[in-house]
Amino acid sequence: MDERYTGCFSDSLTKKIEHRDDLNWVGKLIDELPQKERMIIQLREIEQYDFDEIASILNLPEGTIRVYLSRIRKKLRKQFLDIQNHGIKSN
Amino acid sequence: MELKAIEKLLNKYLEGETSLKEEAVLRTYFTQESTIPEAWIPYRQFFGYCKEAKKETFPICRKKQTKSIKSLMLVAASIALVFALQFSGLFDQKATPFEKEQAALAFHQFQTQMKTVSNHLNRGAQKVAYLDYWNDITQKLIK
Fold it and tell me: Which A-chain residues 67-86 have CB contacts (< 8 A) with chain B?
């Protein structure tokens, strides 16, 4: 395993900075999502709302939210893997 | 937690079929486990980000508050500026006769300089008008 990830939460300053850097680009990827997708991710992953609550907030059927969420999660996963493999962020 | 169980949960997660409880299991696994398979590193980063982001509460409200404080400070600063200008005006009124004389002299000098400048400007304009006149004549001759 890549040694920079082995102790993500260690006290070493370098690792802390690297960890902060990782968080920054995850945030950047999320910010680049279309508004609706960003809201769904925000409500589910960060605020941890239930599907029926998200459905009522966004005025969309629950099934649609699930489909959206699955699509966004897969999309983000692909982008994460791309960055990890190339080591370069595509802008 | 067994890796297979996590993998199963991850597949469910990607399909959008996990419950909040199952997602909490994933979140704790990825943020607390020190060694995870390399392929899962993106999940750790993502869940780590979500955990950090959750700590930020009501960012919109906070922004609004700072904005109102800023605008209040702006208003206060502008009032202070108006007062300061007024006070400086009062001080000017108490200027000594010598200062007044100097100011008058400076004004007079400025006035004469501006007059000279404007005279020269006019002279320039006359020259340009003269050129225009010559242009007209040459145009007529060509025709």
Answer: 67-70, 73-74, 76-77, 80-81, 84
